[in-house]
């Protein structure tokens, strides 16, 4: 199932359509599944609210119908999540995710060492997809590590999950994507702390954390110095950013953020419309109000500023609720007595944390691949918890 998110949109359309139909049938025929949704209503409601707002923005700004390509995905995954209300074989699902992590990590290695790609970008998306690919890959790494930490994981499965973590992390480092790798650190630390508190295995946690940190530092400081160079360039680009020097990854982001903020200031309540930042930026460049360095960009490389520019304060509120509602839902079950419920809760929190942190320096929902993963995992995990809570209450 997870592999379908890593291939081209044409290949993934068929399995998604099948899952959508199955989900609809499940919702129509199974009262237990509908109850699972009701127990996870806040998560589904936040997704629906974001879809409704995007539809209103589309109508209000009279945008091209292609603008709705990504928003309507929400309907798809609202139905697909019903599959998680079934008593699925969790071992098979965990294995599938780890195998996906290995495939994508190996793809990164292949692109770097065989094809000579400077920054691997995965199976689709092109050169500009390196950041989203890194975030996607690191989310899968966290899920694999979670499975490796579980006490009830079979030894053979544990080795598979550990291999997925190693290969996936190495593949993510090869992308040289600073934002996702920096976001990964606190989320990974949170996972380790949750594991230590729940299992009381503090020594094991510290050992695993130390091995991971030392391993990543060794790779970045010896084999791949370019990652260190990119990190050290940040302060220099910030210090030298100005109207006459807006080239470079960091400077261009600063210029785009400045332009997006101007769009918000000009339209604080209605915004300029979904996916209209590129049009606005090019107009600003033509008028001499923005650097030509950002003329080719269509998004401002910040999901929060994208929302402010596209729909003003209401859009930012909807985005924050899109993160906050599932965060509150999962946090409530983080220390649940049932191990499967608690595991699903920490998994959901890790996904939201990665996306929420990466959203500061990149657009995390403007491509189908990362948005699909978010909706699939967050809605699926929430409905799965709802199913387990319902089953526990009927015993």
UniProtKB/TrEMBL annotation:
<dbReference type="InterPro" id="IPR051533">
    <property type="entry name" value="WaaL-like"/>
</dbReference>
<keyword id="KW-0812">Transmembrane</keyword>
<dbReference type="GO" id="GO:0016874">
    <property type="term" value="F:ligase activity"/>
</dbReference>
<feature type="transmembrane region" description="Helical">
    <location>
        <begin position="126"/>
        <end position="146"/>
    </location>
</feature>
<protein>
    <submittedName>
        <fullName>O-antigen ligase domain-containing protein</fullName>
    </submittedName>
</protein>
<feature type="transmembrane region" description="Helical">
    <location>
        <begin position="206"/>
        <end position="224"/>
    </location>
</feature>
<keyword id="KW-0472">Membrane</keyword>
<keyword id="KW-1133">Transmembrane helix</keyword>
<dbReference type="Pfam" id="PF04932">
    <property type="entry name" value="Wzy_C"/>
</dbReference>
<feature type="transmembrane region" description="Helical">
    <location>
        <begin position="308"/>
        <end position="331"/>
    </location>
</feature>
<feature type="transmembrane region" description="Helical">
    <location>
        <begin position="158"/>
        <end position="175"/>
    </location>
</feature>
<feature type="transmembrane region" description="Helical">
    <location>
        <begin position="12"/>
        <end position="28"/>
    </location>
</feature>
<keyword id="KW-0436">Ligase</keyword>
<feature type="transmembrane region" description="Helical">
    <location>
        <begin position="181"/>
        <end position="197"/>
    </location>
</feature>
<dbReference type="GO" id="GO:0016020">
    <property type="term" value="C:membrane"/>
</dbReference>
<dbReference type="InterPro" id="IPR007016">
    <property type="entry name" value="O-antigen_ligase-rel_domated"/>
</dbReference>
<feature type="transmembrane region" description="Helical">
    <location>
        <begin position="65"/>
        <end position="86"/>
    </location>
</feature>
<feature type="transmembrane region" description="Helical">
    <location>
        <begin position="343"/>
        <end position="366"/>
    </location>
</feature>
<feature type="domain" description="O-antigen ligase-related">
    <location>
        <begin position="163"/>
        <end position="320"/>
    </location>
</feature>
<feature type="transmembrane region" description="Helical">
    <location>
        <begin position="93"/>
        <end position="114"/>
    </location>
</feature>
<feature type="transmembrane region" description="Helical">
    <location>
        <begin position="372"/>
        <end position="389"/>
    </location>
</feature>
């Amino acid at each position: 199932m997870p592999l379908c998110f890593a291939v081209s949109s044409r290949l993934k359309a068929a399995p998604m359509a099948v899952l959508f139909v199955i989900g609809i049938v499940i919702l129509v025929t199974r009262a237990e599944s509908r109850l699972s949704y009701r127990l996870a209503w806040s998560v589904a409601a936040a997704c629906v609210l974001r879809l409704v707002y995007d539809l209103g923005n589309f109508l209000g700004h009279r945008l091209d119908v292609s603008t709705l390509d990504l928003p309507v995905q929400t309907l798809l995954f609202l139905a697909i999540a019903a599959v998680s209300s079934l008593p699925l074989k969790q071992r098979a699902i965990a294995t599938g995710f780890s195998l996906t992590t290995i495939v994508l990590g190996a793809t990164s290695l292949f692109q770097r060492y065989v094809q000579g790609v400077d920054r691997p970008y995965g199976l689709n998306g092109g050169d500009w997809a390196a950041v989203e690919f890194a975030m996607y890959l690191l989310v899968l790494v966290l899920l694999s590590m979670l499975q490796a930490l579980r006490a009830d994981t079979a030894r053979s499965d544990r080795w598979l999950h550990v291999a997925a973590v190693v290969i996936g992390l190495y593949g993510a480092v090869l992308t040289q994507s600073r934002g996702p790798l920096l976001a990964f650190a606190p989320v990974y630390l949170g996972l380790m702390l949750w594991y230590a508190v729940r299992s009381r295995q503090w020594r094991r946690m510290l050992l695993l954390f130390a091995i991971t940190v030392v391993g990543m530092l060794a790779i970045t400081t010896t084999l791949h110095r370019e990652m260190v160079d990119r990190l050290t360039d940040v302060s220099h680009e910030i210090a030298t950013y100005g109207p006459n020097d807006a080239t470079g990854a960091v400077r261009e982001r600063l210029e785009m953020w400045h332009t997006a903020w101007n769009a918000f200031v000009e339209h604080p309540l209605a915004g300029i419309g979904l996916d209209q930042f590129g049009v606005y930026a090019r107009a600003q460049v033509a008028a001499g109000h923005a650097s030509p360095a950002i003329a080719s960009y269509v998004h401002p490389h910040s999901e929060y500023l994208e929302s402010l520019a596209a729909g003003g304060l209401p859009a930012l509120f909807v985005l924050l609720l899109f993160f906050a509602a599932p965060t509150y839902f999962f946090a409530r079950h983080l220390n649940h007595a049932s191990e499967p419920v608690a595991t699903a809760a920490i998994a959901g929190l890790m996904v939201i944390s990665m996306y929420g942190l990466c959203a500061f320096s990149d657009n995390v929902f403007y491509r189908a691949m990362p948005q699909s993963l978010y909706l699939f995992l967050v809605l699926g995990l929430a409905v799965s918890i709802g199913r387990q809570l319902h089953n526990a209450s009927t015993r």
